[in-house]
Amino acid sequence: MEKPQRFRAFLWQKFIVLPGVLFLAGLVYLSPTGQAWSPVTWAFVLTACVAGSLLYVAAAGMRFYAQLDGDAVTLRLASIAQSFPYAEILRVREVGKYRVRLCIDIDDPGVHRHVSFDLLNRDAFVDALLDRYEDVTGDELAFDQAA
To answer: Which 3 state secondary structure label does DSSP give 121?
Structure first.
């Protein structure tokens, strides 16, 4: 059995809080309290904010991934991991530069669901998924490349 392959998720949504931090820092700077702070205090505050932001982004990047193992695709895109056996995957589609969309069978005739996620190395993930799907099921997975 092949060892699991893990692909890092591209979490552009996690960066949305960083402009908010800059906005709040600007408000503090413009306030009477912020105006009274010395340059040394501002250097300390700025260093703490940058370090905290980097830790936040690094921690988020370590927790979010897509993994291909022997019998399923496992996605950890929130606080829980969710696995989809290869046999339940109906189609994979590339959308844009980073996004992958899986069509998953939910055991209801004519009904399926879509799971979309962004990966840093989308092409490698799709290639590995197509290969693993064929190895496990013996069939080729339907593949679309969106315009």
So the answer is: coil
